[in-house]
TrEMBL record:
GO terms for molecular function: ATP binding. It holds the Pfam family BCA_ABC_TP_C. CDD domains: ABC_Mj1267_LivG_branched. InterPro entries: AAA+_ATPase, ABC_AA/LPS_Transport, ABC_transporter-like_ATP-bd, BCA_ABC_TP_C, P-loop_NTPase. This is ABC transporter ATP-binding protein. It comes from Amycolatopsis rhabdoformis. Keywords: ATP-binding, Nucleotide-binding, Transport. Gene3D superfamilies: P-loop containing nucleotide triphosphate hydrolases.
Length: 243
């Protein structure tokens, strides 16, 4: 299987705070990798570096074999990486459909093609019932799905998900987890997701990477990783739910 993401020796500090230290990660194409770690471990900084929002101090990042270190977020997204944000930012006065069409058009192509693709994405993300509603009127669970629909409309090959389940009650989480598993199966999407909800991490991930104080302290199969004494220790004082 080819490698979607290769991270080598990536370090990043902020005025004395070592946010990332010599991080090395490989993500196989079509796999689902969960990123966990206590607060302040470096997870968001890691996403910012691989998506091009921050330039690493050292090391390199390869996306589908191409060195993207130091490239702009825009160029990296052109190569097939997309990300969701914890703070969702749809165009509030536009409907769900208009938002998804706009996202599809941002990748070029014509209106007809964008409408067609948006329709498919809205169906796939279970948003059909909300398609003509103004985004401002959506509740949190629907907004999360809209955020997913918008990134999927850009036809990514690698999707970075930042706590897409946060703020959802358990009954609302299950359909999103199912959707993500389905997208990998049907589209061959590669998913890298930061998540605090361990049940979802265990259920979705082929492998889990654990950050602590800027370092990768463990990686491997979910069950092995959460039983690792180093990981349990890193979470001392903080809960590792579901472990
Ligand atoms: N722009 C910045 N300027 C200064 N320090 C920063 C900046 N961004 C992150 N840091 C520091 O880098 C470290 C890693 O932060 P980061 O946000 O990546 O952790 P995290 O694992 O995403 O945490 P959380 O789970 O709480 O979101 C922390 O000590 C944080 O205070």
């Amino acid at each position: 299987m080819s490698t979607a993401l290769e991270v080598r020796d990536v370090s990043k500090s902020f005025r004395g705070v070592q946010a990332l230290s010599e991080v090395e990660i490989d993500v196989a194409e079509g796999s689902i990798v969960g990123i966990i770690g206590p607060n302040g471990a470096g997870k968001t900084t890691f996403f910012n570096v691989i998506a091009g929002a921050l330039r690493p101090d050292t090391g390199h990042v390869k996306l589908f074999g191409k060195d993207v270190s130091g490239m702009s977020p825009h160029r990296i997204s052109r190569l097939g990486m997309a990300r969701t944000f914890q703070l969702m930012r749809p165009f509030g006065s536009m409907t769900v459909r208009e938002n998804v069409v706009a996202a599809a058009l941002s990748r070029g192509g014509n209106h007809r093609g964008a409408h067609h693709h948006a329709h498919d994405v809205i169906e796939a993300t279970g948003m059909a019932a909300w398609a003509d509603m103004v985004s401002d009127s959506l509740h949190t669970a629907a907004l999360k799905r809209l955020e997913l629909a918008r990134v999927l409309a850009t036809r990514p090959r690698l999707l970075l998900l930042d706590e897409v389940l946060a703020g959802l009650v358990p009954a609302e989480r299950a359909p999103v987890v199912e959707l993500l598993a389905h997208l990998r199966e049907s589209e061959g999407l590669t998913l890298v997701f930061v998540e605090h909800i361990m049940q979802a991490v265990m259920q979705l991930s082929d492998s889990v990477v654990v950050f602590d104080r800027g370092r990768v302290i463990a990686s491997g199969e979910p069950a092995e990783v959460v039983a690792d004494p180093t990981v349990v220790e890193a979470y001392l004082g903080q809960e590792l739910p579901g472990a």
